[in-house]
């Protein structure tokens, strides 16, 4: 319908909008807003004629109708309408007014403690917009789904709506597609009208928690003048919020909670929530530090864990360690939670709760937030819903404001992508904050989905205690200087209401300061109830070259190969996969040499049947990027998308450990962070992340630098995470050739990580088993092959798995006369096979080729033994595919020089230094590759015959 008059004719004589029909009409209307085609043509025409409601899911050119309805009470058309039709028209508008408050009430809610800005005029929240005036205020209308009575006067309806949606709480949830979730939230908010109604004891407890938060900050400010602590002042209500949240978690049966947060307010949370002894904190301010950490970290990055008392018993709470890369801790927490849930059999996710604290600018501005939200409901990464708390100080980092930090109305808007409800709340109303905390947790426990609390506050001091905020924010800080503090305001409110006496509020300050002076615990602690991961048996001082038996008897390998190659009945494999399975049957019989995929699957199978769980994730890792792993098979005749997947490694034996393989979302930073968090919480599981190509890890560099490479020396956090990074120069261009070996070697120090380049399936088998069988846990970076995955030259006999171990250095394989060898060529990875083929083709017998399979920690003894094996060799050449400014050359040359005999000469064969990792043109690649191989075998170490010496000044 295009005209209001036609719409009104449709309305005349109708009685559909009254009584029990009103909720039905409202359901249809919400259905229409999501998809106009989902309702019948009659109802579509009916709703098309209504003034459009902002927030709807579709656009309509309804300005003409909108204006006509606004003017309708004054027109002769309106006065000519029958009384019943007029009332029905108003009933429609009342329902729209209710929905308008649910959609838009947040825009005029009293959220800013500083009250800096005038509230916007939202026409849709004004009854006059719908032609409703004072004369209608005492008219009774059906309320639809509004909680509070089936029929109410318009005056009562408005009061309820404004108390609920326009007070200290601003709720956003009408975009949620699930009607049941929306109705649940409406019931919780509207049933109490956004007013908590706590008793006197609870309100005094809130004041005590506010006192603790404020007094600690002021105590530190005077005791340690000028030292950075990233004060919570202005956001003090976070402490009663977290206290209430954790107490309620325990009451609802949770056993653990894991918290991730940046540095703002961290010291306050450590002392006032987790119960870290104040004397420990003061000692850190005074320079005391852990002697066993070679690096350590600043106090506002430190993690902590404790068991706190709750009405439901002891709750173990862990605060994750976090560097200054703010939101990068988010997926780390999620991974840690998932591991803990797995350990205690928490399949629903209600016994271990993730809690993430964010800054307003970081939540809107850092992409890892979106990546973490996106994984929240995926099969491999869900944790049963996360409680997100934004400490919204309305200023972002240092000198920014909302015009510079985001392009949306609210910092929390990114959470709408996963239908997470968002509750904005004024931090100056602690009781409203606690009410929203209850609703948020209950929603999470009911629906196992993420929920966001946007705690709107301010930052009393600068970004840190040495910063002067007036320099860039003079307007805002005029308001802040006039603000007495949340604790003071709340204490005055309670005193006026007779809940506390004025001297009682001051006594709380004195009592807290006394506890600080005495260094006593502020939080009631409790005995541990949950089983913790056992890290005590892992040693930091185990020699890297200590032998570990990774061989597996032949009969056992063949027993495990049977379920790995058994196809279920009535299960049709793709023809290419069928051929791979048939080949693996032959490999198990010894008729074919093992390829990479079979050796890797056998490594997992042996560990699983020895009680070691395995978790493997990555983009397309079930199949394998290069069609090599096939850990999961897919029935080609399946009828539904969710049917017909079979994972042989899950069907080895009844008592095997869990095997999880996940095709991850298209994310590197969040997924790698998740797996790091998982590995730090579960030392007994082999946790692997595979990049689709090695350079995909570039997108996760923060996780690699700040957590994986340095977590142990900064925080003492051991981790056995394995990164699989496909690497090799096959002419695929600059983007997918190099896994950036040089970056990992640059991070190597303090025996922090392992960097390995296995060149055969047997090496991979032993390497993976060594990772779990050794009494140590260190991250393992594995540069895996691409073209070698199915190369016959790189295959291994089954017998190589039944004997030996991972070899950090592999000696020459041909029977050369050691006394006649004049040159040793050292290399790693795929280039070895090209060197071997070239030497054999050229008939060269005086140049030995050795493979260095472990670049760090460097295998000093094994390499020295190879130098000694050729007593007359006067030349050592390092050969690599990568350009001279990349790859292993710059790091490894120091090790080579250290172990060369006196008089030996060191040189290299490599690509010339380059800004890109590899050539983009196949012809150029082939030319360069040929030149590198030729240079390794050049008769003498003449600079002019070494391609790596072109543009040498750029090295």
TrEMBL record:
<dbReference type="InterPro" id="IPR032106">
    <property type="entry name" value="2-oxogl_dehyd_N"/>
</dbReference>
<dbReference type="Pfam" id="PF16870">
    <property type="entry name" value="OxoGdeHyase_C"/>
</dbReference>
<dbReference type="Pfam" id="PF16078">
    <property type="entry name" value="2-oxogl_dehyd_N"/>
</dbReference>
<dbReference type="Pfam" id="PF02779">
    <property type="entry name" value="Transket_pyr"/>
</dbReference>
<dbReference type="GO" id="GO:0030976">
    <property type="term" value="F:thiamine pyrophosphate binding"/>
</dbReference>
<dbReference type="InterPro" id="IPR001017">
    <property type="entry name" value="DH_E1"/>
</dbReference>
<dbReference type="InterPro" id="IPR011603">
    <property type="entry name" value="2oxoglutarate_DH_E1"/>
</dbReference>
<dbReference type="GO" id="GO:0004591">
    <property type="term" value="F:oxoglutarate dehydrogenase (succinyl-transferring) activity"/>
</dbReference>
<comment type="subunit">
    <text>Homodimer. Part of the 2-oxoglutarate dehydrogenase (OGDH) complex composed of E1 (2-oxoglutarate dehydrogenase), E2 (dihydrolipoamide succinyltransferase) and E3 (dihydrolipoamide dehydrogenase); the complex contains multiple copies of the three enzymatic components (E1, E2 and E3).</text>
</comment>
<dbReference type="Pfam" id="PF00676">
    <property type="entry name" value="E1_dh"/>
</dbReference>
<dbReference type="GO" id="GO:0006096">
    <property type="term" value="P:glycolytic process"/>
</dbReference>
<keyword id="KW-0324">Glycolysis</keyword>
<comment type="similarity">
    <text>Belongs to the alpha-ketoglutarate dehydrogenase family.</text>
</comment>
<dbReference type="InterPro" id="IPR031717">
    <property type="entry name" value="ODO-1/KGD_C"/>
</dbReference>
<keyword id="KW-0560">Oxidoreductase</keyword>
<dbReference type="GO" id="GO:0006099">
    <property type="term" value="P:tricarboxylic acid cycle"/>
</dbReference>
<dbReference type="GO" id="GO:0005829">
    <property type="term" value="C:cytosol"/>
</dbReference>
<dbReference type="InterPro" id="IPR042179">
    <property type="entry name" value="KGD_C_sf"/>
</dbReference>
<dbReference type="InterPro" id="IPR005475">
    <property type="entry name" value="Transketolase-like_Pyr-bd"/>
</dbReference>
<dbReference type="GO" id="GO:0045252">
    <property type="term" value="C:oxoglutarate dehydrogenase complex"/>
</dbReference>
<keyword id="KW-0786">Thiamine pyrophosphate</keyword>
<comment type="function">
    <text>E1 component of the 2-oxoglutarate dehydrogenase (OGDH) complex which catalyzes the decarboxylation of 2-oxoglutarate, the first step in the conversion of 2-oxoglutarate to succinyl-CoA and CO(2).</text>
</comment>
<dbReference type="InterPro" id="IPR029061">
    <property type="entry name" value="THDP-binding"/>
</dbReference>
<protein>
    <recommendedName>
        <fullName>2-oxoglutarate dehydrogenase E1 component</fullName>
        <ecNumber>1.2.4.2</ecNumber>
    </recommendedName>
</protein>
<feature type="domain" description="Transketolase-like pyrimidine-binding">
    <location>
        <begin position="594"/>
        <end position="791"/>
    </location>
</feature>
């Amino acid at each position: 319908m295009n005209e209001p008059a036609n719409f009104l004719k449709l309305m005349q004589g109708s009685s559909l909008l009254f009584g029990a029909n009103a909720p039905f009409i409202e359901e249809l209307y919400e259905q229409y807003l999501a998809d106009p085609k989902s309702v019948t043509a009659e109802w579509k025409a009916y709703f098309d004629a209504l003034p459009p409601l902002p927030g709807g899911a579709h656009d309509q050119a309804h300005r003409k109708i909108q204006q006509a309805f606004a003017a309708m009470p004054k027109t002769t058309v309106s006065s000519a309408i029958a009384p019943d039709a007029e009332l029905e028209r108003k009933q429609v508008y009342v329902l729209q007014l209710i929905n308008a408050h649910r959609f838009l009430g947040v825009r005029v809610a009293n959220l800013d403690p500083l009250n800096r800005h005038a509230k916007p005029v939202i026409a849709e929240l004004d009854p006059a917009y719908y032609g409703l005036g004072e004369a209608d205020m005492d008219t009774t209308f059906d309320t639809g789904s509004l909680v509070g009575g089936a029929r109410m006067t318009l005056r009562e309806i408005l009061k309820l709506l404004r108390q609920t949606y326009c007070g200290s709480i601003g709720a956003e949830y009408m975009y949620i597609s699930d009607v049941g979730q929306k109705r649940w939230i409406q019931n919780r908010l509207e049933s109490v009208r956004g007013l908590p109604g706590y008793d006197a004891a609870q309100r005094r407890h809130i004041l005590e928690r506010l006192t603790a938060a404020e007094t600690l900050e002021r105590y530190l400010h005077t005791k340690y003048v000028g030292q950075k602590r990233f004060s919570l002042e202005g956001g003090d209500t976070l402490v009663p919020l977290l206290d209430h949240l954790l107490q309620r978690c325990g009451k609802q049966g949770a056993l653990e909670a894991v918290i991730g947060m940046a540095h703002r307010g961290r010291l306050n949370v450590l002392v006032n929530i987790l119960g870290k002894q104040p004397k420990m904190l003061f000692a850190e301010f005074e320079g005391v530090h852990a002697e066993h950490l070679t690096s350590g970290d600043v106090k506002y990055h430190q993690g902590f864990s404790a068991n706190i008392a709750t009405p439901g018993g002891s709750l173990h709470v862990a605060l994750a360690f976090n560097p200054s890369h703010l939101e990068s801790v988010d997926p780390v927490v999620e991974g840690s939670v998932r591991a803990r849930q797995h350990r205690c059999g928490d399949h629903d996710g209600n016994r271990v709760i993730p809690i993430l604290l964010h800054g307003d600018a970081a939540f809107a501005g850092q992409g890892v937030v979106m990546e973490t939200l996106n994984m929240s409901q995926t099969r491999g990464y869900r944790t049963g819903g996360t409680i997100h708390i934004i400490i919204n100080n309305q200023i972002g980092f240092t000198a920014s404001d909302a015009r510079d930090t985001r392009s949306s109305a609210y910092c929390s808007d990114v959470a709408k992508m996963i239908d997470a409800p968002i509750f904005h709340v004024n931090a100056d109303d602690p009781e409203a904050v606690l009410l929203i905390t209850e609703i948020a947790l209950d929603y999470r426990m009911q629906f196992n989905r993420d929920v966001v609390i946007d705690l709107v506050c301010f930052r009393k001091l600068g970004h840190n205690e040495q910063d002067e905020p007036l320099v860039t924010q003079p307007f805002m800080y005029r308001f802040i200087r006039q603000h007495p503090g949340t604790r003071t305001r709340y204490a005055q409110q309670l005193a006026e209401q007779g809940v506390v006496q004025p001297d009682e509020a001051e006594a709380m300050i004195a009592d807290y300061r006394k506890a600080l002076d005495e260094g006593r615990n502020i939080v009631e602690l409790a005995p541990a109830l949950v089983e913790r991961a056992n890290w005590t048996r892992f040693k930091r001082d185990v020699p890297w070259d200590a032998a570990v038996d990774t061989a597996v008897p032949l009969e056992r390998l063949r027993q495990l190969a049977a379920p790995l190659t058994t196809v279920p009945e009535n299960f049709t494999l793709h023809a290419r996969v069928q051929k791979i399975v048939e080949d693996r049957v032959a490999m198990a019989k010894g008729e074919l040499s093992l390829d990479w995929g079979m050796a890797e699957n056998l490594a997992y199978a042996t560990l699983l049947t020895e009680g070691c769980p395995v978790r493997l994730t990555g983009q397309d890792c079930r199949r394998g990027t290069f069609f090599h792993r096939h850990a999961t098979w897919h029935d080609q005749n399946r009828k539904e998308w969710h049917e017909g997947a079979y994972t042989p490694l899950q069907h080895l034996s009844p008592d095997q450990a869990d095997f999880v393989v996940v095709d991850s979302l298209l994310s590197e930073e969040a997924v790698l962070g998740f797996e790091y968090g998982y590995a730090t919480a579960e030392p007994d599981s082999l946790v692997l992340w595979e990049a689709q190509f090695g350079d995909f890890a570039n997108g996760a560099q923060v996780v690699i630098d700040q957590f994986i490479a340095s977590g142990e020396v900064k925080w003492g956090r051991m981790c056995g995470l394995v990164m699989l990074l496909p690497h090799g120069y096959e002419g695929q261009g600059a983007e997918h050739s190099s896994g950036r070996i040089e970056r990992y070697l640059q991070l190597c120090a303090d025996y922090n990580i392992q960097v390995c380049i296995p060149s055969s399936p047997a090496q991979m088998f032993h390497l993976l088993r060594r990772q779990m069988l050794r009494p140590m846990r260190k991250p393992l970076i594995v540069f895996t092959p691409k073209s070698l995955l199915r190369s016959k030259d790189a295959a291994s006999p089954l017998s190589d798995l039944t004997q030996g171990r991972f070899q950090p250095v592999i000696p020459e394989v041909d029977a050369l006369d050691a006394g006649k060898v004049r040159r040793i060529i050292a290399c790693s990875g795929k280039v070895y096979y090209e060197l071997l083929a070239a030497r054999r083709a050229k008939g060269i017998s005086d140049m030995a080729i050795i493979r260095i399979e472990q670049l760090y920690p460097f295998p000093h003894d094994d390499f020295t033994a190879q130098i000694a094996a050729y007593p007359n060799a006067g030349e050592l050449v390092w050969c690599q595919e990568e350009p001279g400014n990349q790859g292993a050359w710059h790091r490894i040359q120091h090790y080579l020089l250290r172990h060369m005999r006196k008089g030996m000469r060191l040189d290299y064969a490599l690509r010339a230094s380059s800004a890109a990792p590899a050539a983009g043109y196949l012809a150029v690649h082939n030319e360069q590759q040929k030149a590198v191989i030729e240079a390794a075998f050049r008769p003498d170490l003449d600079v002019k015959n070494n391609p790596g010496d072109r543009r040498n000044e750029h090295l």
